[in-house]
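request received
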Amino acid sequence: MPVVKFTKALKRFFPTLQDTPAEGASLPEILSEMDAHYPGIKNYLIDEQGGLRKHVNIFIDGSMIDNRNTLGDTFTAGSEIYIIQALSGG
Amino acid sequence: MKPTLLLGTRKGLVAYHCNNGQWQVENISFDGVPVSIAYADPRNGTWWACLDHGHWGVKLQRSKDRGKSWEEVAAPAYPEGEEVKDGVPAATRYIWAMSHGGSNYTSRLWLGTDPGGLFMSEDEGNSFKLVESLWNHPSRKTGWFGGGRDQPGIHSIVVDPRDENHIHIGISCAGVFETLDGGNTWLVRNKGLRADFLPDPTADMGHDPHILVAAPTNPDALWQQNHCGIFRSVDGAKNWEEVSEKEGAARFGFAMAVAEDNPDQAWVAPANSDEIRVAIKGSLCICRTDDGGKTWKELRNGLPQENCFDIVYRHALAASGDAVAFGTTTGNLFISNDRGESWAVINNYLPMVYSVQFAD
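response:
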């Protein structure tokens, strides 16, 4: 079962956030699953057309995903999925 | 004068309250988060904060206790599959205007967004729906383009208090649109404007009204600080006339406010040209007309007159009674209690100021 890990920056908005096991077979499914755990978080990560927000990154087992629009990257049952923020702004 | 100043800044919402002539901070919320618009609904006192998280997208928050507590509500979202242009998905990138729907529509709110969608709520802001009649206007995909922001944006929503289904909006870059039926159909109202940056400056579409405002005592008297000058209409935007100074300061800028009690009196915050965008000759002034734009007076008493880089963003100048206030790009907040004749500093150390509103 893959585990989803989050940047601590999101704890400001979702204080109970922690490493969370997921059952979904695709990244969009997993984000919906996380939204059930932490209501509203999906909207912080992707826009209304399903694309990853410009300054959000997802890494699967240490590699940045390739497809930011459809989130079609694959993973395995043992994968670690990191949701992080880009370092930008000032 | 209303006793509260509500500010949207690059690093949060700041509210000042005037106590015995002294402006004191009443509330600071959303530390570090850009607030594109801070808005107090005069009908019910609800405060709204339009947030522009750098990482997490546009969010909308409201407070019914003057900022002591906030509640996140669903931000405006474009329906699945909508596009700004062919192949460019439409997603809310910025909330650039907010207005209540009037005293006869107590649950109605309007939002203007980048990339060009107008949204309406009929349930006090619990949900917002794209106004498809405007989004599907035949001019949009080919005739609207970015100005100030990369994609088209609605920054002005002017609801006529005599008939709250009569609304003018300002779009950069497209121009002024008018609806007479609550947003079902739209008329283009750009006659008399000049867009020097277009191959045909008098084209019907593609104008850049930086801000559109109406006189509270005569909603047919509309003003706009446009990219290419200051324009006024006395017939509800059917015709525009340029009222810029040929040589003086009152010409280029972003912000504009009209007196609550006089449709011929208005203020602008001049900046040095499209190309440079700083205070003119390093000195800050506000210009006021008392005669419908025929003449302008430079108001400088109390404002920095050397080594100054400040300009005033489009929503950051406001008037209430004899008071006028503005916030600047370098974090200065000024107040005048005599319609601009003299100015005092409220704060020199704010973040970049995006919006200023007088509120109860």
